[in-house]
Amino acid sequence: MKFEGLPNELIFDLFEYFNIIDLFRAFYRLNSRIDKLLNDYDQKYYLDFRCISKHDCEIICRDYLTIITKQIISLHLSDDDETPISSKILFSNGFILDKCNHLQSLSLYHIHSLNRIYNIIKQCQYIPTLTHLTFIKCQFWQNENDFKYFINIVWRLPKLTHCTLDYILPGQRLLTQISNISQSIEYLSMKNIHCDFNTLTHLFQFTPNLRQLYTTIFCGCRDEQLQTNISSIISLNIIHKSSLNTMISLFHHMINLRYLTLETDYIYLDGSEWKKLIIENLPNIKTFRLRMFFELSSVRNREKEIDTLLNSFRTPFWIRKHRWFVQCDWTLSKSQKHAVLYTLPYSFNHFLYDNLCRSKSTCINNQYQSSYDRVSNLQYLEYESNSIINKLNSHCSIQCSNIQHLELRLPYNDKIFWSFVPTLNQLYSLDIMLNNNFAYYQLQAILDQAPCLYSLTFRCLKNISMALFRLRSKSIRRLDFISTSTLQCGHFKKFECDALAESLIGRYCNVLLIKVQNRMNIPHLIKTMLHLRSMVVQCEDDNPENDELLIWLYTHLLSSSCSIERDKDEPSKIRMWIR
User: Fold this and answer.
1) Number of domains the chain contains
2) DSSP 61
3) pTM of the predicted model, to two decimals?
């Protein structure tokens, strides 16, 4: 059967396997029937501009968006290092957001233009189907009035049910600028925004139907009290950085709370104390997930102290009634006294492991010991230790099998690492700290086991070894040699730039973050790395206080289509969207 003879339903199913640029390149203007199907209301489009070339972004915005505007269901838009001016291209081509009258989800990342944010938010008011709105690292205002205008439009959106604000506020008090009551918002996530009780009271007053909240609680006064009952909240995910009294006050007023995920930094309670708190303040609780950080009081009798703590969680209330099991991890380091107690299965996405760590739990027959499926971000550390410590950790029963982001210091103990991380099939980004030039074989072993690895970041790489350029990977498309740590990577010399461009990991690189000694290396890298589409560069002979280097780059790249700009947060970085 020919393609044109397939029924519409099968063609729609086939369309789902293509991204928008490939879909239109393959089928647009093939014939009038296919064009009609591409423009049919049953065809839904999910647009993601977070990982796209400048050329493809321009084609979509110029040629295809007007055709599919009414069928767009979700839109992800980012101005980060990979797609630095995608939002500018989108709206400069006449895209009108409020024409997307079937848009349900809008996510914005790293948008720093105040005018663009205002334009987007104003248009959102006229989208009748918008239910999900997300802002990630969008630091765009200059004063309180800017934020007041922004937040009140968001709270005025008639159908909005899910709202995420992440890395967006310079201060918690700005949430008290909300003056519009939202009857629709039910799910609010603002993990990195610190709220005191005054802020929470105001927030609940203007979001009366809020059912789920994720935030950080930080009260300046140890005895601060929440003044009102919150009957709508049934699910709470909080990082609590205040006193026990404030935590009890919070729970006492959450009269219908059923699901609690809690992280504490400054509170230490044993099993009987947690039991009392739950019975008196959380009578309707069904799910209780806890991670409690604390310091051990004893240096010599640590294990005895841990045993005493765990025994307080081995009562019928914890084991039989609720089947809430806990585990405690502590360090053997003589200079550290920190420990963490958490419920099993582990319910948080970040996990820190080091080879000086010991663990004990209350679970029966260790049935939850390997239940760390929620862990997506792993920070794995190994310190120099004796054979006894290595033996204690070589049979670790904890396994993290769904790691997407890994921070790792080389060299590492192969046996311990691979027992802890049995598979890297989902690994997407890898941050490597190199202590010497003799661990590249271990890095290669990781690359061989990570078929989906996209991003590789090097830290503390002052002396670049030629072994770096012999690394092999079929999946890596992003290389980052600009570390945010205090021990930063060195500047690449001319021969090192040549070696990178000719290497297997450099040959197919799409996104490059790098320091160079000489500005001539920049156009050379762009010309020799044929798949490079975006680049962030720091040049040793650049003066961030003027645009002399930017003008020089425009002249020597001989391409009017390349966008070049300084990073607004770190002017020493020049961001380029090349192809």
Assistant:
1) 1
2) I
3) 0.91
